Amino acid sequence: MQAPQIHLLHDFGTSCTHLFRKKLHINPEIFDNILDHISGHPIFTNQSNNPQLPVAIQLAIFLNCTGHYGNAISPEDVGQWAGVSVGSVINCSNHVMIALLDLHDTFIQFPTPDSEDAEHAQQFVEARSCPEWRNGIFAIDGSAINLYEKPGLYGEAFYDRKSNYSLNCQAIIMPHNLLIVDYSLGNPGSTHDAYAFKSTHVYQEHDTLLPEDHWIWADSAYPLEKWCIAPFKKPHNGRSVFMLNMHLQL
After folding, report:
1. Is 1's pLDDT higher than 50?
2. What is the arithmetic mean of pLDDT over 79-103?
3. Strand partners, 166
4. Position 178 pLDDT exceeds 90
5. N or C: which end of the chain has fewer CB atoms below 10 A?
6. How far apart, in whole angstroms, are the C-alpha atoms of residue 230 and residue 136?
């Protein structure tokens, strides 16, 4: 007989943050920030004589579910971990997802040039590279989100280079805190990153979103633009080219 373990998150959040991150895949302070934003959402209220679980518990259940994949997690396993029924796991996940989607534009937004986040990102980049590169305050990369099984319609299009059926996700982050400021999801897994990049908000409106003389760091799969800096794909022999590619890898 296994006792519920969800109550351990409180201790993990104060003294063993690595265990908190391992279970929920976010830092405790980010958890608290999300909780503050969604707690007042009407989805967490009802007219029943049986009140819902506390919002913090529902959020923890949701993060535990979404932070794992396949055999590593199931509604039954999460229910045992949290001490609730399988139905409660599903309801909690649905409640939190609805609240997050309603607050999507609050969580995902491009920082203004004079914002605190932009300044911290510039300081971070300058400290780890050089003053001339401090305006590279964004970075982009693609990631595959595996699907449970082959889609019934155009299934082969979702077969990626790692032999999985997946969706291509493009995420643009700030390097100092890994905050996602833009993303694109929906292209099949076989889509090249350079093509999927074109469906992002920043690609389509980089003139208005990116301040003057600012750019995005990218790997060699992406196009080389004034506002998107990638390593040389086929560098000629030369110390300057070699040094640029070497520093971009740091």
Report:
1. no
2. 94
3. 146
4. no
5. N
6. 11
Residue 165's DSSP bridge partners are 159
Q: Give the pLDDT confidence score for residue 52 in this predicted structure.
A: 92
Side-by-side strand order, sheet with 216-217: 180-188, 166-173, 138-146, 216-217, 228-229
Average pLDDT over residues 192-200: 93
Alpha carbons 167 and 33: distance in angstroms, whole number: 29
Q: How confident is the model at residue 231 (pLDDT cuts 50, 70, 90)?
A: confident
CA-to-CA distance for 28 and 90, rounded, in angstroms? 23
pTM of the predicted model as reported, rounded to 2 decimal places = 0.77
**Tokens representing residue 178 in the block:** 């890994």
Angle between helices 55-66 and 75-82 (to 10 degrees): 140
Q: Structure tokens of 186?
A: 């929906």
